[in-house]
């Protein structure tokens, strides 16, 4: 049982890291720009497709990843310049409708360019093995690399936000964007930087997960829902909140799906416990979100935002 718990804890940590990479950019976009971007999950999908394409072209996953990230950054900046900058002054309903339409357009665009059939990305040979943990239990090396890469990215993002001038502007913009603009900061350039950074982080998550999941149209839709849950729990605009909430959500979702049916077997017969567990497990993170909203309506680590 302990081996299973350790295995699923690592899976939950890996899932949480991926959620953080997607949520980090989105929480900054929402916190600084006051923009509801439903199309953020599409950038996760685009990152996976770019990684699959460049890996197939170069024959090397790491080189494909190195090529995919700047292209994703450029794609994000292009979207911001062409579409999103026209939505900053619009109300949230307009933003929701426009970005939902963008989801449909980009999903269809992916089908036109790559087809509707799922793509696969091979795990690099150097990372295809597994390492021993406890006893006979082994864990895939590539999944550990995802965890390590995500933690390194989180550390780099922390240093950027808290120990650089750009980070100072980002934190100031999240707290009071109008004042930052009044002090002479080019707010349009700041918005472009935030959006491009968020696009690249989401693309990084998609690229990292491409070798262990199918790359297919619409793959970003489900993770977008969980990303908004992470932002609500962590606090809008808070990188620290996004990290803590993503890890919590990843662990609760993974451990709940595994151990929920096992715990229910102590109360009911195995067949009923299995069925009930499968039904209740996906609800756990939403119950958690409701509890956090009840106790701390602004999230675990809220950022003070001036009235806009």
UniProtKB/TrEMBL annotation:
<keyword id="KW-0472">Membrane</keyword>
<keyword id="KW-0812">Transmembrane</keyword>
<keyword id="KW-1003">Cell membrane</keyword>
<feature type="transmembrane region" description="Helical">
    <location>
        <begin position="243"/>
        <end position="264"/>
    </location>
</feature>
<keyword id="KW-1133">Transmembrane helix</keyword>
<dbReference type="GO" id="GO:0005886">
    <property type="term" value="C:plasma membrane"/>
</dbReference>
<dbReference type="GO" id="GO:0022857">
    <property type="term" value="F:transmembrane transporter activity"/>
</dbReference>
<feature type="transmembrane region" description="Helical">
    <location>
        <begin position="284"/>
        <end position="303"/>
    </location>
</feature>
<feature type="transmembrane region" description="Helical">
    <location>
        <begin position="96"/>
        <end position="121"/>
    </location>
</feature>
<keyword id="KW-0813">Transport</keyword>
<dbReference type="Pfam" id="PF02653">
    <property type="entry name" value="BPD_transp_2"/>
</dbReference>
<keyword id="KW-0029">Amino-acid transport</keyword>
<comment type="similarity">
    <text>Belongs to the binding-protein-dependent transport system permease family. LivHM subfamily.</text>
</comment>
<protein>
    <submittedName>
        <fullName>Branched-chain amino acid ABC transporter permease</fullName>
    </submittedName>
</protein>
<dbReference type="InterPro" id="IPR001851">
    <property type="entry name" value="ABC_transp_permease"/>
</dbReference>
<feature type="transmembrane region" description="Helical">
    <location>
        <begin position="38"/>
        <end position="57"/>
    </location>
</feature>
<feature type="transmembrane region" description="Helical">
    <location>
        <begin position="141"/>
        <end position="161"/>
    </location>
</feature>
<feature type="transmembrane region" description="Helical">
    <location>
        <begin position="219"/>
        <end position="236"/>
    </location>
</feature>
<dbReference type="InterPro" id="IPR052157">
    <property type="entry name" value="BCAA_transport_permease"/>
</dbReference>
<dbReference type="GO" id="GO:0006865">
    <property type="term" value="P:amino acid transport"/>
</dbReference>
<feature type="transmembrane region" description="Helical">
    <location>
        <begin position="190"/>
        <end position="213"/>
    </location>
</feature>
<feature type="transmembrane region" description="Helical">
    <location>
        <begin position="63"/>
        <end position="84"/>
    </location>
</feature>
<feature type="transmembrane region" description="Helical">
    <location>
        <begin position="12"/>
        <end position="31"/>
    </location>
</feature>
């Amino acid at each position: 049982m302990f081996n299973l718990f350790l295995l699923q804890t690592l899976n939950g940590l890996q899932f949480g890291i991926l959620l953080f990479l997607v949520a980090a950019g989105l929480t900054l976009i929402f916190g600084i720009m006051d923009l509801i971007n439903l199309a953020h999950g599409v950038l996760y999908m685009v990152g996976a497709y770019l990684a699959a394409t460049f890996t197939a072209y170069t024959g090397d996953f790491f080189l494909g990843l190195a090529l995919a990230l700047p292209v994703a950054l450029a794609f994000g900046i292009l979207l911001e310049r062409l579409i999103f900058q026209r939505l900053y002054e619009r109300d949230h309903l307009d933003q929701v409708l426009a970005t939902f339409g963008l989801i449909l357009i980009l999903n269809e665009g992916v089908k036109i360019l790559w087809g509707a059939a799922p793509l696969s990305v091979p795990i690099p040979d150097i990372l295809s093995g597994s390492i021993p943990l406890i006893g006979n239990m082994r864990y895939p090396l590539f999944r550990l690399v995802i965890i390590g890469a995500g933690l390194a990215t989180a550390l780099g993002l922390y240093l950027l936000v808290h120990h650089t001038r750009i980070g100072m502007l980002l934190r100031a913009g999240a707290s009071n964007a109008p004042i930052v603009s009044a002090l002479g900061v080019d707010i349009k350039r700041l918005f472009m930087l935030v959006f491009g950074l968020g696009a690249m982080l989401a693309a990084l998550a998609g690229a990292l997960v491409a070798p262990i999941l199918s790359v297919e149209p619409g793959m970003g839709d489900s993770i977008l829902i969980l990303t908004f849950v992470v932002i609500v729990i962590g606090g809008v605009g808070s990188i620290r909140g996004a990290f803590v909430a993503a890890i919590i959500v990843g662990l609760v979702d993974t451990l709940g799906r595994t151990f929920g049916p096992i715990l229910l077997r102590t109360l009911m017969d195995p067949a009923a416990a299995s069925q009930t567990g499968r039904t209740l497990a996906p609800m756990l993170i939403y119950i958690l979100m409701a509890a956090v909203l009840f106790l701390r309506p602004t999230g675990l680590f809220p950022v003070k935002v001036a009235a806009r």
